[in-house]
């Protein structure tokens, strides 16, 4: 019997399947099937999508502008008018958290893209060309030797407080992670017979990297990048908290918490809600990453943390 | 040859199921066979036939879940293996039934010397002092033909070649003089000249210790040379059972017949090999009726509809094929 | 068959490949040289199949890789189709690669899981024939039907196929550039017997249709016997015997060939012949025995074997063997 795709018996799993198969062209139906059965992954996607939607529709959700100072509404606890309460300037915490989602996600995404690209470049060079391996990986090891957050603080502090500098600092800090993951899979792929076959067919290194190596490093890289996204959200909050991230009055979860910390006893909500937002985002991303790892390759053992 | 005494091993309607990704897959489906004391039974089949799963099920080594074992009867020396507790089963494993695997490297612990591992196995089943156990370990290594066993006991597995490791595995399996040895593709990872060494050794020890052996293999040559009786498996089912000479002389099941013909002979020139078309059905999409029917040149309608039962021609000989039924029924 | 009148398609002489490996010994790492291939010479005529057999570690796969120029040579010469390709660079090799292709053992690792069948088979075309990319679709479909796959398979991905079908995809890819020589490196070893026969038949059909020349590398003597015209036997990096397959199987001259052939179990109960079970293991290629490398396991070893390495000598039948004992018996 033909069912309308949106009728209830198919439900949102069916919808997900349609999206994955028709629109994302996920031709690998086995992966799609496994994804649908993975509740970790689906919960992760749900939570993260929720946060993303908050960020995208911030303009509609935040009825009160995030920087509107209303001195008569200072320190108001959560109410119908101010769902998350207000801060010491009478600004609506809900609006600020929602806009903060936008900044956090922008920073997270930028860090993911930048550290992803540099990780692919360095990891591929190191893994594919044995001569470069030692040089590149020793530099990466040197970076890894520092505690990540300390290194990020040092770089961000040197560059000066701004959103762009926070992104650069975090991208540098997380590059060794992506580079290692990429290198590890390149080392395996390089030994595969299909790479040998490509050489036999006369393929250039460029072609082999583009057509054979790169596509096969994507699965572990994507998994790693979801975790990096989560780390970046936390690290950005730390940088903002310390005042070396995005500059106020731009609201970020980190600087909202920082501003609320003086009033933490009297007006807990100021710091509580951005804290929860960080928690939900990080939880969602971690579930997403774990789920993706299970789905893309059950045998894949990418360590994080 | 069939004696009225209780067989050493009796398997009736053994099935093994696995549950993966929400699907129930039947790896072994209602198989039955007996094994007499001191007999060498070959289980042959291609990948996906379920032959290795049989051995694991006999040892009760199937992880449950995701696996589950059903059997009407699974008895060893008259004792029911299915109803044994983990503790009782542990006493049977190694003591009375031993197993050797295809990959000797992964079955040996790389951080202990082979002497250590042997001593541990021996002490688990016999009340011996360390020193006595060590002496026994050296004897066992000598028994399996390892040169200079006094020196080798202090070696680590990676010091040994593949053939030597398989000998060590055999020594471990024999540590407690088992009545039954399950050998799962014991020589598949080895080169032919080494395979010959290991199989000759197994055959020699089998006679010496009067063990029963279940030799699981995909290699019909190995079956022909080293077994007494053969069970042929296809897609989780036993399709034929016969004494080894009869099986090769006059196979009754089309699968056996075609399998024998599809092997390139070593002493004869053929222009073309006979190939069995198609491939083994996936366990999630088993055909109804005879599982070999989609690839069988003799398949009739009935084969595709109803699964044939084992037709027993003599106590030792049976095959599951509708053609045998037709021959029996007078026209 | 007349190798004197035609120039061979492939001529390799004194091929040497040494690898340097690090050895951990005590405090410092030292390096050692593995003599993987140590002076191999052979010819392959147009349209012929040369079987290259030997046990694991004898260097047969390395010879295949060297011929394909996937690995640099330490010494020797490779002349392909009248052209010395021993030291050509990667870009100089590119046009020659059209003419020589390879089929691999592991059907899983041989196909990129992220590429569709069409992309896999089309890749050699895209590299060598990028100008006529419009015709590629038709060519790919033709190739698929040549190897027995359907058009509808073109858009599927490797994981949707069985082992035998994947091997067909690999063969289609190798055929794409219309090569003269195909190196089959254990091309059917990973397949089940029934599927193996399909692929062997396919390879033979293709050879007839496209006048292909095969170097068929395998450890499986019965397969090699079936498919080859001549067979070269390797031991520890050297060729010990090359002969027409009939003479090799009927009257093997080298003691190693004799032992190797006698080790193969024959799938006919009772057909068992006198078995020469070799003692011990293959020596390490890092430190091969002096003189003849087989002498440590050879039943006919003499004093001279430890001193002088025998060279390949012509036998009365025109075959080649390298053994002091054979030369003596000739005189």
TrEMBL record, chain B:
Residues 11-260 form the ABC transporter domain. InterPro entries: AAA+_ATPase, ABC_Ni/Peptide_Import, ABC_transporter-like_ATP-bd, ABC_transporter-like_CS, Oligopep_ABC_C, P-loop_NTPase. GO terms for cellular component: plasma membrane. The keyword Nucleotide-binding applies. It is found in: Cell inner membrane. It is a peripheral membrane protein. Keywords: ATP-binding, Cell membrane, Membrane, Nucleotide-binding, Transport. GO terms for biological process: peptide transport; transmembrane transport. GO terms for molecular function: ATP binding; ATP hydrolysis activity. NCBIfam families: oligo_HPY. Belongs to the ABC transporter superfamily. This is Oligopeptide ABC transporter ATP-binding protein. It comes from Nitratireductor pacificus pht-3B. The lineage of its organism: Bacteria, Pseudomonadati, Pseudomonadota, Alphaproteobacteria, Hyphomicrobiales.
TrEMBL record, chain C:
Residues 10-261 form the ABC transporter domain. One of its GO terms (biological process) is peptide transport. Gene3D superfamilies: P-loop containing nucleotide triphosphate hydrolases. GO terms for molecular function: ATP binding; ATP hydrolysis activity. The keyword Cytoplasm does not apply. Coiled coil: none annotated. Pfam families: ABC_tran (PF00005), oligo_HPY (PF08352). GO terms for cellular component: plasma membrane. Keywords: ATP-binding, Nucleotide-binding, Transport. It is a peripheral membrane protein. Its main location: membrane. The keyword ATP-binding applies. CDD domains: ABC_NikE_OppD_transporters. It is found in: Cell inner membrane. Transmembrane segments: none annotated. NCBIfam families: oligo_HPY, PRK11308.1. PANTHER family: D,D-DIPEPTIDE TRANSPORT ATP-BINDING PROTEIN DDPF-RELATED, TRANSPORT ATP-BINDING PROTEIN. Belongs to the ABC transporter superfamily. This is Oligopeptide/dipeptide ABC transporter ATPase. It comes from Nitratireductor pacificus pht-3B. The lineage of its organism: Bacteria, Pseudomonadati, Pseudomonadota, Alphaproteobacteria, Hyphomicrobiales.
């Amino acid at each position: 019997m033909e069912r309308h795709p949106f009728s209830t018996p198919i439900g949102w799993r069916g919808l997900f399947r349609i999206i994955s198969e028709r629109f994302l062209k996920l031709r690998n139906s086995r992966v799609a099937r496994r994804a649908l059965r993975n509740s970790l992954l689906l919960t992760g996607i749900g939570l993260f999508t929720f946060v993303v939607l908050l960020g995208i529709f911030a303009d509609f959700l935040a009825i009160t502008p995030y920087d509107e100072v209303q001195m008569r509404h200072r320190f108001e606890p959560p109410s119908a008018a101010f769902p998350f309460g207000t801060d010491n300037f009478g600004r609506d915490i809900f609006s600020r958290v929602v806009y903060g989602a936008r900044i956090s996600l922008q920073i997270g995404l930028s860090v993911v893209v930048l550290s992803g690209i540099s990780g692919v470049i360095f990891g591929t060079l190191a893994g594919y060309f044995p001569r470069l391996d030692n040089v590149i990986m020793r530099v990466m090891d040197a970076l890894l030797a520092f505690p990540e957050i300390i290194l990020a603080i040092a770089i961000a502090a040197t560059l000066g407080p701004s959103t762009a500098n926070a992104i650069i600092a975090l991208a540098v800090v997380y590059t060794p992670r992506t580079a290692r993951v990429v290198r590890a899979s390149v080392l395996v792929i390089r030994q595969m017979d299909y790479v040998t076959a490509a050489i036999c067919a006369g393929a250039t290194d460029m072609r082999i990297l583009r057509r054979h190596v790169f596509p096969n490093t994507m699965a572990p890289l994507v998994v790693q990048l979801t975790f990096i996204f989560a780390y970046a959200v936390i690290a950005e909050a730390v940088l903002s908290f310390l005042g070396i991230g995005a500059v106020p009055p731009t609201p970020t979860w980190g600087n909202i918490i920082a501003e609320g910390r003086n009033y933490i006893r009297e007006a807990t909500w100021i710091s509580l809600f951005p804290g929860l937002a960080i928690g939900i985002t990080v939880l969602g991303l971690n579930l997403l990453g774990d789920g993706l790892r299970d789905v893309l390759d059950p045998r894949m053992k990418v360590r994080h943390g | 040859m069939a004696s009225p005494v209780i067989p050493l091993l009796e398997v009736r309607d053994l099935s093994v199921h696995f549950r993966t990704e929400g699907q129930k897959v039947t790896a072994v489906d209602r198989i039955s066979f007996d094994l007499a004391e001191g007999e060498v039974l070959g289980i042959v089949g291609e990948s996906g036939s379920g032959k290795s799963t049989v051995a694991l099920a006999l040892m009760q080594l199937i992880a449950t879940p995701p696996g589950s074992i059903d059997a009407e009867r699974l008895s060893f020396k008259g004792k029911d293996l299915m109803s044994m507790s983990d503790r009782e089963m542990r006493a049977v494993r190694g003591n009375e039934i031993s197993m050797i695997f295809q990959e000797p490297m992964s079955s040996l612990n790389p951080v202990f010397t082979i002497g250590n591992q042997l001593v541990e196995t021996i002490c688990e089943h016999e009340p011996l002092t360390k020193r006595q156990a060590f002496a026994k370990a050296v004897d066992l290594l000598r028994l399996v033909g390892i040169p200079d066993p006094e020196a080798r006991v202090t070696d680590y597995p990676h010091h040994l070649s593949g053939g030597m490791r398989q000998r060590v595995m055999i020594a471990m399996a024999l540590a407690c003089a088992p009545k039954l040895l399950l050998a799962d593709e014991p020589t598949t990872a080895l080169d032919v000249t080494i395979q010959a060494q290991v199989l000759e050794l197994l055959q020699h020890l089998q006679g010496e210790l009067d063990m029963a052996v279940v030799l699981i293999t995909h290699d019909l040559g190995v079956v022909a040379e080293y077994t007494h009786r053969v069970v042929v498996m296809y897609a989780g089912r036993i399709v034929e059972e016969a004494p080894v000479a009869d099986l090769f002389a006059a196979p009754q099941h089309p699968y056996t017949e075609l399998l024998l013909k599809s092997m390139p002979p070593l002493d004869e020139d053929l222009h073309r090999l006979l190939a069995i078309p198609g491939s083994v059905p996936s366990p999630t999409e088993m055909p109804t009726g005879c599982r070999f029917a989609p690839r069988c040149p003799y398949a009739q309608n009935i084969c595709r509809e109803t699964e044939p039962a084992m037709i027993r021609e003599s106590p030792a000989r049976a095959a599951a094929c509708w053609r045998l039924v037709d021959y029996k029924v007078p026209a | 068959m007349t190798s004197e009148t035609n120039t061979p398609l492939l001529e390799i002489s004194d091929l040497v490949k040494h690898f340097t490996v690090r050895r951990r010994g005590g405090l410092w790492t030292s390096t050692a040289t593995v003599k993987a291939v140590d002076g191999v010479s052979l010819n392959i005529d147009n349209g012929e199949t040369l079987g290259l057999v030997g046990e694991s570690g004898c260097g047969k796969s390395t010879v295949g890789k060297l011929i394909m120029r996937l690995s640099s040579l330490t010494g020797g010469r490779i002349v392909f189709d009248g052209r010395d390709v021993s030291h050509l660079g990667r870009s100089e090799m590119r046009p020659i690669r059209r003419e020589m292709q390879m089929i691999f053992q592991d059907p899983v690792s041989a196909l990129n899981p992220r590429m569709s069948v069409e992309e896999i088979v089309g890749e050699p075309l895209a590299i060598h024939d990028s100008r006529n990319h419009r015709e590629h679709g038709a060519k790919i479909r033709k190739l698929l039907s040549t190897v027995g796959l359907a058009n509808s398979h073109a858009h599927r991905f490797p994981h949707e196929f069985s082992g035998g079908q994947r091997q067909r995809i690999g063969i289609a890819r190798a055929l794409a550039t219309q090569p003269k020589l195909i190196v089959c490196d254990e091309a059917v070893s990973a397949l089940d017997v029934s599927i193996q026969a399909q692929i062997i038949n396919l390879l033979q059909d293709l050879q007839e249709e496209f006048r292909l020349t095969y170097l068929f590398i395998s450890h499986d003597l019965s397969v090699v016997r079936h498919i080859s015209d001549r067979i070269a036997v390797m031991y520890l990096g050297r060729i010990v015997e090359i002969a027409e397959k009939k003479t090799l199987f009927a009257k093997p001259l080298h003691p190693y060939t004799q032992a190797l052939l006698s080790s193969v179990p024959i799938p006919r109960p009772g057909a068992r012949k006198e078995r020469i079970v070799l003692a011990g293991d293959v020596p390490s290629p890092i430190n091969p025995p002096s003189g003849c490398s087989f002498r440590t396991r050879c039943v006919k070893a003499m004093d001279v074997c430890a001193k002088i390495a025998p060279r390949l000598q012509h036998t009365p039948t025109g075959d080649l063997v390298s053994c002091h004992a054979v030369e003596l018996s000739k005189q």
